[in-house]
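Let us begin with a simple case.
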Amino acid sequence: MNYMKSMKKVNMVKKMIAPLCICAVLVTCTSDPFTGKKSVALVGNSELFPESFAQYQEFLNQSEIIPEGADAEMVQRIGNKIKTAAEQWVDSLGQPDYLKDYQWEYHLVQSDEINAWCMPGGKIVVYTGILPVTQNEDALAVVLGHEVSHALLNHGQQSQSAGIFQQVGAMGVAILTSGMSDTAQQTAQTVYGAGSHVAAILPFSRENENEADHYGLILMTIAGYNPEEAIAFWERMSSLGGGTLEFLSTHPSDEKRIANIQGWIPEAEKIAAELRR
């Protein structure tokens, strides 16, 4: 009897997940021109971009924007050069329409936080707190190249899709444990949540950060900035401390990040040289 109940629950989970997986693979499997990788996109950019643009504007409305001055002008200047580099690169790859729905926007925002971020579709914020670490235009180009790459590689879209799959898994756990006590159900959900986060979500996030480092380095080099400055910048970031164990972090370790960048510099310089011909 217990075996039959378990099999019914398993079948319910299969029926719930299978259509989603089939639909994702057959209908929303996308490929980007940079990495050539295919990824499942459960949320299309036609839906994601307008939502992103609205959230970005809401953030700006609630923030202290630095509209002018040398630093604000520097953010705009570097951002525009990297945007142009991205357009030049996709043209060279034979996909000039890839960026047609992107609406690039850069703002410098007053905050002590040492950070910058990008929303899907090209909406970027740089916090003033990161400028003492960048120290120069080439290093800020490292940061903006990294953030622009997140947008180009559709990492926001992929992250949302991964979150949906994780939620579907949680629904499956709920069905399989529906006959158990409340405590057992809560424990199962906790174990699933922690396990899926460490085994799937964190490595996925680290891979995205790795790709943003890689393609951001190429973008900044195409834009005419010195890729060697990426090493100095990340060494300064590393000196600030706060090193979380890599397997529990959404970012690569500082040592691995710097080693990767050193290995990618010749490639970045080669691609930039080819595009200048």
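The second case is a distinct protein. As before, the sequence precedes its structure tokens.
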Amino acid sequence: MNEILGGGFASRLFQKIRTEKGLAYAVGGGLSFAYDHPATFHVMVLTQSANTVEATKLAMAEIDGLTTRPFTEEELARAKDNILNSFLFRYDTREKVLAERERLEFYGYPADYLESYKAALEKVTLADLDRVAKKYIHPDKLAVLVVGNGPEIKPGLDELKLGPVETVDITIPMPKPKPKQP
């Protein structure tokens, strides 16, 4: 599901927001993978301030689409291939394999986790994607954080109908000048 939503060049987010609409420098997201705690869901879109509202609307529509627009066999096959092919680069040296095995051991994963992960991934079906999306994706419970040029972005944020907009000042204060030495 992550790969289909925001995992690469063929993902729904990338195709809609970057390729079709040309609104983002980078876009991606999904459920984060945590070794020892529940995952968080996130989507990020890096865009110009003037395009923030439109890009956010499109991202929210793609998130909603996980629960309302059926996944396709083509998406599933491509996602599986992308993930399985990534193993070629993620584990292409003994050092990388050892580092991953150490991490998995540290967090209590079974010794055959990588092999069982691959086997389980190969068995994922469209019904699995639909079930997982409906269980974990809740478009009505999103928190949206927008960072950028406030005066240029803020007037359009009301269009998103997400509730009151709270401005947070993240200005980094300039260091005080050092006193001159006598």
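Helices lie at 2-6, 12-20, 52-68, 73-90, 94-106, 113-122, 126-136, 150-157. The CA atoms of residues 53 and 167 lie 16 Å apart.
Keep these points in mind for the review questions at the end of the chapter.
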